[in-house]
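Practice problem: predict the structure.
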Amino acid sequence: MQDSRAPKPAQAAGTVRLGDLTVQRMGFGAMRVTGAGVWGDPPDRAAAKALLRRALDLGITFLDTADSYGPNVSEEIIAEALYPYPAGLVIGTKGGLTRPRRPAWTPDGRPAHLRAALEGSLKRLRLERFDLYQLHAPDPRVPFVDSVGALADAQRAGKIRHIGLSNVSVAQLEQAERIVDVVSVQNEYNLGERASDDVVDACARRGIAFLPWYPLGAGSVLRSAKIKRVAARHGASTAQIALAWLLARSPFMLPIPGTGAIAHLEENVAAAALQLSAEDRATLG
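Answer:
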């Protein structure tokens, strides 16, 4: 029988703070527990629920989702699989993107929409309050301060513990900070896409968690000669090296790689134990 006190794989990366909450620094993005194109039900709902349970077995204590994943499907499956939630599990969800059809991701940052989206997510996740609720994307048709203000209102009403942002610039982060305490930022970031370098650094200065979405990047990055060289040194996969690079980039980095397969989940989590040398980091650039 496995000793329940033994360290779990995700714990090798250490922890990061989300406000007054502490989570393991290797998280799980639940976007892929849905159908193709992040639309509809997964091919095997039971397998999707088993995948989520395995994530917790591996020591993951932070799950990232959104009402737009499915839409609604990811949140529903998380609740089906894990409710009542174990102590220490933090679920972060997002609102502010809609899915009028399969390929579409349309911002809607109107306060009325965000209020309705928040209530729907509370119901699907069977929660009375979110530990973390993130604005999924600024809406160019709506003043950013109005969208953030709607979340501030919900926080004052006791429906949100902590507020995060997604797909924002440093200027938008600063704008939001004049309204609320921001505990996380989630932008696209990986070895091949570093446009948010300034946001990563701004989060580090503030002690704010940075959640990189699309953490493995495009396939061309994982096929590059430089990452293959580093992977060979460690006897690791190129995906594991990409995740280890993120963990080394900032102590406030909280990768959330997602997958629909348990074997891939286990491979990703094993990256928590990889320590890149200065030579490795120089090779990767």
